[in-house]
Amino acid sequence: MLIALAVLTVAFLQQFLVALLWAAVFVTSTDRIHVSVLRRTGNRKTLAAALMTALVLFAIITPLSFCAVTVIGEANDFYEVTGPQIVEQLKEPIAKAETWIRMRYKASGSLSGLLEPGKFALGMAQSTIQGVFAAFATLFFLVLSLFYFYRDGHVAVRVAKELVPLKEADRNLVFSEMRDAVNAAVVGGLLTAVVQGALGMIILWILDINGAVFWGAVMALASLIPLVGTALVWVPIAVFLAWQGEHVSAAVLTGYGIFVIALADNLLRPIFIGQRMKAHSLLLFFGVLGSMLLFGFKGIVLGPIVVAGLTATTTLFRREFARGRA
């Protein structure tokens, strides 16, 4: 019954997993601040939870709102400049594909309908409305989760520890590894991503490339992918500049990407993460990438946690086997 009810509960919570995961990340990474606020409020848990929720919400919404407005504006400008050219260039390949499909499979219908402005605009409007509602719903669930995690999270952690069939020292090791994984791979990774995105935005703005803020935000997201990181963004841009004949700009961007953006990752990531994430880089790379492919954006959180849990339990098994051999 316990297993069946647990599976059902996880199924119920699956739709809200993004809000729950990020709430857990923020609560874990601000634990020391929460303890200080709790002490200053005379150990009033509800008041401290409300203050911390407001603080985190302000810290999230203020920079994200500014970035979102800027990125959306630049993305719109970028589409207005390049969109018609792309659509015009796609008409001929789509017409050829349509002819080939009709000849090969005797199919009916028209692929060129994909390029009709009315259908495209309607689809974009529907997607935008759905995205806005989804964002507000996620934000509401995030705020709700933050408040209750701050107020009652310690109880949930204590119960979870009691359910793990290990000795107290081993339980503490597993939970400590997972907490360090959140602080290191998620929080440290996000801070590094923000810095690298800002550095990328600066060089693109200096080189007078359209959508510098937009591509800087994309670079920050790409930074979260281990090993490859921001190179997924600035390398294609440098290749495109070289193809357009702007060899000096391409060379400057390439040198800046190698010696500034990549070097910033090598310098900042150890500072933000330190030695807390004990998993091997290759395992962490495939863990995060595979988790993102399986779970989407929330895989950024789930991947490091699963890898940290595997590392901790492997350590425990090795310790027990060593004792058995002894």
Architecture overview:
With 326 residues, the chain is an all-alpha fold. The protein folds into 2 domains: 20-163, no CATH class; 167-320. It is 85% helix and 0% strand. The protein contains 11 helices and no strands. The protein has helices spanning 2-13, 17-29, 31-40, 45-105, 117-163, 168-206, 212-223, 231-243, 247-273, 281-295, 299-325. The radius of gyration is 24 Å and the shape is globular.
Strand tally is 0
Tell me the fraction of residues in β-strands, as a range.
under 5%
Number of helical segments with 4 or more residues = 11
Q: Uncertain regions: pLDDT < 50 for 5+ in a row? A: 107-118
**Fraction in helix:** over 70%
Sheet having the most strands = none
How far from one another are the termini?
39 Å
Structural class: mainly alpha
Shape: globular
| Average pLDDT | 77
The oligomeric state of the chains shown is single chain
- Radius of gyration over all CA atoms, rounded: 24 Å
Number of domains: 2
Listing every helix as H and every strand as E from the N terminus to the C terminus, the arrangement reads: HHHHHHHHHHH
